[in-house]
């Protein structure tokens, strides 16, 4: 059935008002599919016009809102995610607080906002338990909230598949989890440290003692705001500031850094990451505290972020740019289902299907999805194997070199990664993801001027696009958002 743009827009606006999500036109069909799934669960009509009426009914019942939240959010997460933030937490923030408050007010207050199924707050709880010798003498408030009730229920259950542990040191898994069939259950000692509840960042009242969102020492809100509308991000940023004590920290993921949203905080560099801190804004001039923070001028995006396992909307997209050879018996239907599996983050199933397809009718489209699926499952060895294999067959795909670069970067081979990006840009001088990645690698390796050249080239290309344009092969990022991120990198 043909759906007119106005209906799509109206549905998108309603969802924006309810949850803050931003959808580019390119994603309207996928958005509607998710809303229809949510509608089915609560026995509502799936006809677009009726959906619009349903979304406009105020207030939505809790069950309706929960179903929508479940189907529209991306809950990808894992324990010990993004080392830079965890280094800051364990090496800087906590030691400082312990020092300041020892023997006085022995209390630490943390909020994990958008905690999904709990891996983030549980990671913090484990770290605190590992770091603080007499933890029972401290009052730890670790509040964890999410829009998605189903995610909170999973967090409360505390059982995780091995995939949640892809960055977890073996001894931690051994010490704090018990195997239960195919799952690992978190120990009560950690479970009891975290208070979970649902909270919609768009509609909730905070700071407030009622939901424990006041007088906080730090807020972790990583990989959450990136999908929200700019006006919502700004409003949340202002409220977060109010929720923090003076000197409190606001920690986003490294791909979300953006001074136009978070300019109400001071920017602080620690190791390879940049973080926000609540300070008296009149003293904001010095953003890098050179005494405490040794800026190594590294890549802003963490390696793990560049190819981190996530659904398409958040990390590796299915965007496919070139075909090596015309597949002999090209089966469009199965490629479509491969893409669907990939979009649904069913990477293991996707790999199986891709492999069958690669035997029957090899194509770069399928190969690239196979590589991304392996990368998203953390199996970089296989991802690299397939990259090498495909590059041998056809060395003219910029995207293959780009993917290879990220795998190599993740495997700690920055020079080889740089070479691959050079090759990608030789093949396709305006391959935007490669320009961005090249800037980042050079920046991280202290070649700031060269990095700026690539960033400038990237911005020139982005200036030719509308802000809403969704960039191919780039996690669903819009041109506007990428421009902002690039500008932040250039300035820092
Ligand atoms: C990708 S997960 C991030 C989990 C974790 N912070 C991390 O970085 O691993 C994003 C989470 O944000 C939540 N979220 C999205 N919009 C939200 C909103 N308006 N209010 C509260 N949570 C929201 C989603 O439900 C989802 O669980």
If you had to describe this structure to a student in words, what would you say it looks like?
The structure is a single chain. With 492 residues, the chain is an alpha/beta fold. It folds into 3 domains: 5-72, no CATH class; 83-296, Vaccinia Virus protein VP39 (Rossmann fold), CATH 3.40.50; 312-491, Serine Threonine Protein Phosphatase 5, Tetratricopeptide repeat (Alpha Horseshoe). The chain is 50% helix and 11% strand. It has 21 helices and 10 strands. α2 (28-41) packs across α4 and α17 runs antiparallel to α18 (414-427). The longest helix is centred in the N-terminal third of the chain and has 19 residues, at 83-101. Mean pLDDT is 84; it is low at 284-331. The structure holds S-adenosylmethionine. S-adenosylmethionine binds next to loops. S-adenosylmethionine (SAM) is lined by residues 19-20, 73-77, 81, 114-116, 120, 146-148, 151, 199-202, 222-224, 314.
Question: What is the element layout, followed by pairings?
Answer:
Elements: H1 5-19, H2 28-41, H3 48-56, H4 62-72, H5 83-101, E1 107-113, H6 119-131, E2 139-146, H7 149-157, E3 159-160, H8 170-176, E4 177-180, E5 183-186, H9 188-191, E6 194-198, E7 216-220, H10 230-243, E8 244-251, H11 259-262, E9 266-270, E10 273-277, H12 303-306, H13 332-343, H14 347-360, H15 364-376, H16 380-393, H17 398-410, H18 414-427, H19 432-444, H20 448-463, H21 479-491
Parallel strand pairs: 1-2, 1-7, 2-6, 7-8
Antiparallel strand pairs: 3-5, 4-5, 8-10, 9-10
Helix pairs in contact: 1-2, 1-3, 2-4, 5-6, 13-14, 13-15, 14-15, 15-16, 15-17, 16-17, 17-18, 18-19, 19-20, 20-21
The structure holds S-adenosylmethionine.
S-adenosylmethionine (SAM) binds next to loops.
